[in-house]
Amino acid sequence: MISTREFKKARRQHWKLTRNRVDVDTSWSPFRAAEKKYKTRFPPPDLSAVLDLASLRNATLYQPTQISANGPDVFILPDLPGLVLLPAFISPQDQRRLVIWSLRDHARHPNETNLDAHYVLPHNGLWNAHLQSRTAGTEPSLIRTKSSLDSESLSRSSSSGPRQLISNDPASLDNFSSLQSLPKPPPEPSTTVSDRLPSDLVPKLRWANIGWSYHWGSKQYDFSKGKGEIDPFLRDLCQRAVGTVLWEKVFDEDERKGWGGDDWRTWKDSYEPDAGIVNFYQTKDTLMAHVDRSEVCATSPLVSISLGNAAIFLIGGLTRDTEPIPLLLGSGDVLIMSGPACRRAYHGVPRILESTLPEHFAQPPDGDEEMIDWEPYKDYTCNARININVRQVFPKGFDPRAQEAM
């Protein structure tokens, strides 16, 4: 529930924004209308149409089909071929372990984050600098901006004007070489940010790259940077999720037409995640509608893991004109997008639901992690959601750097 103070603030903002606004609802696409519906702070959105597989709320409306005979629950939706849902697939212990990995072990050199473009981050990572600053008797050090270190060159190179939206061509083996020839300049450091304490920057952490480096400016992978390591625990977890699914029950014969093959038959053995991203959401953050077009493997599973507070996830069709289905993703849920229709479907996260953190996050991990001070992780997750998603960019055994050399 939203606190009284937050509710009043949202109401005041709603009145201010809508006082002189002409009704534009008729110009919105169905996907945009759904985003607006769930993003609004006042009045609070109606969640009655959201599919919640934990309670099977709205099961009659969307008709999820359980395809698992034994073991973990596995659901598919008839209107979204290729979408697979595994509610509560990850144990509470492993959820806490993944939170620690995301913040402490992964969001650091050599894995690029959104803050690297603008700040000179500590080699051991922002989170570890934050933990060190919490130690009694330790004077926290300011994290310097890149613009303050080289302001003269920045003043000559910084561009002005609004951010340009990029529409990238879908990647394939046929156009791989031409896509790799596109220039991929490093992002320009912001000249408006200032030196900050680690604790001030932690809420501004938005993403950390996994595996092959993704170039946000061109929306293509930059293979010249080499392939980052995929954590073995994360890789095994994603392969286990893919291996749990009875894929012959996910796609019928009509849905497999046009694939150019039946690679789904070998996913249990051939699925090899080699890229991805860790998304860090604060409760007021959103992820607007987008399509993933950068992977050559345009049908292989994209595995998405939810940790922390729950989120509303929207997934529609090949255009924004398809009305999306709203799904409730809770901590420990795994969502898999696969097949040509689902992998190219518009999707987004318009809302993180406040105060939905499961009770098990109040408890520290067991085993090897039991000596960790869990308090800062608990404080962080109270107002956050972490999403880990991985995908397979290339067919197993394909070497993009060898192709570039040809």
Q: What keywords describe this structure?
A:
eight-stranded antiparallel sheet, 14 helices, alpha+beta, 14 strands, 26% helix, 406 residues, globular, four-stranded antiparallel sheet
Describe, in plain words, how this protein is organized in 3D:
The structure is a single chain. The chain is α+β, with helices and mostly antiparallel strands and 406 residues long. It contains 14 helices and 14 strands. The protein has helices at residues 4-18, 30-39, 59-62, 92-106, 126-133, 146-149, 151-157, 176-180, 198-201, 232-244, 267-270, 339-343, 375-381, 400-405; strands spanning 65-66, 75-76, 83-86, 207-211, 214-215, 220-221, 275-282, 287-290, 302-308, 311-315, 325-329, 334-337, 347-352, 384-391. The chain has an 8-stranded antiparallel sheet with strand order 1-2-3-12-9-14-7-4. Strand 5 and strand 6 (220-221) form a beta hairpin. The protein is globular.
The beta-strand count equals: 14
**Main sheet makeup:** 8 strands, antiparallel
Low-confidence stretches: 152-162
Overall form: globular
The overall pLDDT, averaged over residues, is 86
Instruction: Kindly state the percentage of residues in helix.
Output: 25-40%
Distance between the termini: 58 Å
Total helical segments: 14
Widest sheet: strand ordering: 1-2-3-12-9-14-7-4
Over all CA atoms, what is the radius of gyration? Answer: 22 Å
Query: What structural class should be given to the helix and strand makeup?
Result: alpha+beta
* Strand residue content: 15-25%
The helix-strand sequence is HHHEEEHHHHHHEEEHHEEEEEEHEHEH
